[in-house]
Amino acid sequence: MTATANGSAAAPAPSGPGVAAAPRAAVASPVAEAAEVVLALPDLYGRLQGTRLAGDFFREQVVSDGYGACDYLLSADVEMQASARYTGNYGDFVLRPDLRTARPLPWRNGTALVLADAVDRDGTPVPVAPRQILRTQLDRLTARGLTALVGTELEFLVFTESYREAFAGDYRGLRTASRYNSDYALTGLGELDDLVGRLLRGMAGAGLRIESARGEVHPGQYEIVFRYAEAMDACDGHVFYKTGAKQIAEAAGRAITFMPKFDQGEGNSCHVHLSLRDASDRPVFDRDGGLSALAEHFLAGVLACAPAFTLLCAPSLNAYKRLSPDAFAPTAAAWGTDDRTRAVRVVGAGPSLRFEHRIAGGDANPYLVVAGIVASGLYGIERELPLPPPGGDGEPLPRTLESAARCWRGSAVAREAFGDTVVEHLAAAADAELAAFAATTTDWERHRGFERL
């Protein structure tokens, strides 16, 4: 076993179930001439964490040997504090580049970005890495001769202030970049046009396939939709876009946020569209203009597991402020045909028939959301669960992060599909979020009790 240039043992390229084959014979074109390569790992929150590497060094050594990074990256919270359950010694695992994910960064000349998989020094995939969590579920689909196609719809708010100005003002008194509800509007979006144009050009230049862009309901809210792709590719594109959008906004002197509930207005969602195809690339959800038996079982599984799997879609305290009555977000595990008031909307017809999963907010990790949809759908298929009628109340979704973590921990389906290690690791992340908030004195408490109590 050789060592990486930063001192970590290089991981041999692993093979076998659950491991994506990584090409090593040739360097992917976006990095072939790049002066700088950003090697990035999706963390538990779907953020990209990584390091900037000299292009020559990446091509000559990192492509073959990987690059060491501190293993706390997959146990850290938003503030980069390791979870109380972290038992490591802050040693390294190895970031193994997946060259198929390489994209240029048009907004940073001469730079490319490559996503990495986290592997142990013997080449074993780190089981709690989000890409590996999804890959494990996709392998289960593959074993049945099925492939998942996914598209995400991610909303965000745009402000006239920069991130630095927003931080200096403690994120108060910010002015949205449009003044009123601009859902489908073609006017009133002038203050968003420049930034949105930069985003569209940047993502197109990076090779993402844009489908649509439009204003949304909350003042300053926008949505850019990309074409569907195979599940892993779609999630890779999602995290690239989210990180790139923040970088482009910062360069433009604007602040954007994907947080599910910035204020009392409409929240930021992350709707996930999913369909399945068989080994012959034929859609399998449609049957004579309705749902096939497989589609019914899959959807029944998604609904049956939705309460227990809500944590995968809503990982933060803030997310549950969006999942509340009268917030145009689902509160129960129910479905309907072209019904945006339900947790799952059946939309399209024929080859385009698909499920729109509407629980996740803008802060959700797409790898975990899609892994949850696939795992729950497989649960329904394996047990041939009957699909309840459309509409109806459905089982309520958890209303708090604490209850969601409890449901997730107690789910036998989750433990069977994901394993105890993954279940406990993701629950520990929720515990860390809850503990951080419990130790914080809020403005609400000061306003309520400073003078009057």
From TrEMBL:
GS beta-grasp domain residues: 30-123
GO BP: any one term: glutamine biosynthetic process
Molecular function in Gene Ontology: ATP binding; glutamine synthetase activity
Domain GS catalytic: 130-453
Alphabetized UniProt keyword annotations: ATP-binding, Ligase, Nucleotide-binding
Domain of life, per lineage: Bacteria
Signal peptide range in chain numbering: none
Keyword DNA repair: no
Xref: Pfam families: Gln-synt_C
Similarity comment: Belongs to the glutamine synthetase family.
Protein name: Glutamine synthetase
Organism ancestry: Bacteria, Bacillati, Actinomycetota, Actinomycetes, Cryptosporangiales
